[in-house]
Amino acid sequence: MSFIRPELIAAAHRWREIIAALALAILGLWAVAGGGYLLTPLGLAILALGAGWAVLAFRRLRFRQDGEAPGIVRVTEAQIAYYGPRIGGFVGLPDLAELRLLTLRGRRIWKLKQADGRLLHIPVEAQGAEALFDAFAALPGMDTAALVAALGPDAPASDARVIALAEVDRLIWVRKGAGIVAT
C-alpha cells in the first residue's frame, strides 16, 4: 500500500530529468555559496551544467506526447527503426533528406523522407517516440526550439497544404545541399 497518490508518482516520473537537473544546479549554488578559490569556479561550472541540462530536459519533456499509437520506435546509433502492426522500416540519419510533421484526421505522424525518396511514417505517440528528439537534434542545422514548437497545440502551419481530408503537412527540416547542380 502506497501513501503517495499514483498521479503524483506519474508526474514525478515524467519530470524526473528536470528534477535531477535542478538538483545539480542547486548543488552548484551550494558550492558557490561555500566560496573560496576552488569552490566558486567549480560551483559556477556545475550551475551552468545543471541549467543547460534543465533547458534541454524541458524541451524533451515538451517533445514527449501523451496518448497511445501502435508501434514501437527504437533509435540505435544513427538509425531510426519503427516496428508497426502493419508497416515499419528503418532510416539512417545520414540518409535522411527531409523531416515533416503530418496531421491527418487529428493524428500527428512524423514523415521521414530518405534521399532516394522512400518514406517512413512514425506516429508521434508511438512507444519510444521520445527518443526521436535526440536523433532529430543531431541533424545538421536542426532548430530544436522549432522542432518542439511544431508539436505545440497551436503551432502555425508554415509549409502547409490543406486538403479535403483535413491533412496538414508541415516541413520541419530539410538537408542542405541535397539538390541537383546545373553546370
How would you characterize the overall build of this protein?
The protein has 183 residues and is an alpha+beta fold. The chain has two domains: 6-63; 69-174, PH-domain like (Roll), CATH 2.30.29. Helix content is 38%, strand content 27%. It has helices at 6-14, 16-34, 36-63, 132-137, 144-150, and strands at 69-76, 79-83, 88-92, 96-104, 107-114, 119-123, 126-127, 167-174. It has a four-stranded mixed β-sheet with strand order 3-2-1-7, with no helix packed on it. Strands 6-5-4-8 form a four-stranded antiparallel β-sheet, with helices on one face. Strand 5 and strand 6 form a beta hairpin. Helix 2 (16-34) runs antiparallel to helix 3 (36-63) and helix 3 (36-63) runs parallel beside helix 5. It is globular, with a radius of gyration of 20 Å. Residues 156-166 have low confidence and may be disordered.
Relevant terms:
183 residues; alpha+beta; PH-domain like; 2 domains; 4-stranded antiparallel sheet; 38% helix
Topology:
Blueprint: H1 6-14, H2 16-34, H3 36-63, E1 69-76, E2 79-83, E3 88-92, E4 96-104, E5 107-114, E6 119-123, E7 126-127, H4 132-137, H5 144-150, E8 167-174
Parallel strand pairs: 1-7
Antiparallel strand pairs: 1-2, 2-3, 4-5, 4-8, 5-6
